[in-house]
Amino acid sequence: MSNKKCRIGIFGGTFDPVHHGHLIMAEQVQSHFSLDRIIFMPAGIPPHKIGEKISDNKSRIEMLKLALQDNPFFRISTWEIDQQDYSYSVRTLREFVPSLNAAEIFFIIGADSLANIFSWREPEYLLKNSKFIVVNRPGYDLDNIMKKEKLRPFLDNIFAFAGPYIDISSSLIRDEFKNGFSIRYLTPDPVIRFIKKNDLYN
User: Fold this and answer.
1) Would you tell me which of 2, 8, 46, 111 could form a disulfide with 142, CB atoms 3.0–4.6 Å apart?
2) Long-range contacts (CB closer than 8 Å, 24 or more residues apart) made by 141-145
3) CA distance 166 to 75
């Protein structure tokens, strides 16, 4: 299929590690919004996680490959990692998105990200020039967030999705593994084997 006819979602994150919460959300978004492809884009240097320890790029990419290998709708892009700089969505919008040459492109984010989007770099430009699929999260009222005065001019570009959300976090998986507890069913088995083989979170 030509990209010119495609609807593509971009799903960013550190994915350290990717887990079933990510995969279930992406699958549901792909289905409900009839996306032809979802691109998982691991962040290079996430500006909101400065000072936090993040696994090396190679390991995070490999875990994504293992988790996504059997889904024909899922792809990986290392574009943000390859920039070797802070991963700002506005830069991705300006430099990466045009290369896709697709009919429609959506950034997939959580309600927590939308609540804080005006702390991002050039938020008004992002909201005006891109589309967002926003997934509800526990502890956040997406309806109330979208009623914020500052978001009103951009509501045509924001699509709420209240699908199933699995409350798993990468930090939970890292902590459980470090403390010697089971991470089975939290992330796909091939990812677990990779974590154990490389003793990734000890």
Assistant:
1) 111
2) 141/111, 142/111, 142/114, 145/111, 145/114, 145/115
3) 21
pTM for the full predicted model = 0.93
The residue assigned the tokens 């702390």 is 119
* Strand order through the sheet with 104-110: 74-76, 37-42, 7-13, 104-110, 131-135, 158-161
Does residue 52 sit within a domain?
Answer: yes
> What are 23's two structure tokens?
């995969």
pLDDT in tens, 108-162: 999 999 999 999 999 999 999 999 999 998 889 999 999 999 999 999 999 999 8
CA angle in degrees (0–180, nearest 5) for 40-191-177: 115
- Asked if the structure places residue 14 within a domain, the reply is yes
Sign of the CA dihedral 71, 75, 76, 80?
negative
User: Three-state DSSP class for 11?
Assistant: strand
Q: Is residue 194 a part of any domain in this protein? A: no
What residues contact residue 158 under an 8 Å CB cut-off, 6+ apart? 114, 127, 131, 132, 134, 146, 151
How many domains are contained in the chain?
Answer: 1
Cis-peptide into 17, omega within 30 deg: yes
112: domain range? 3-168
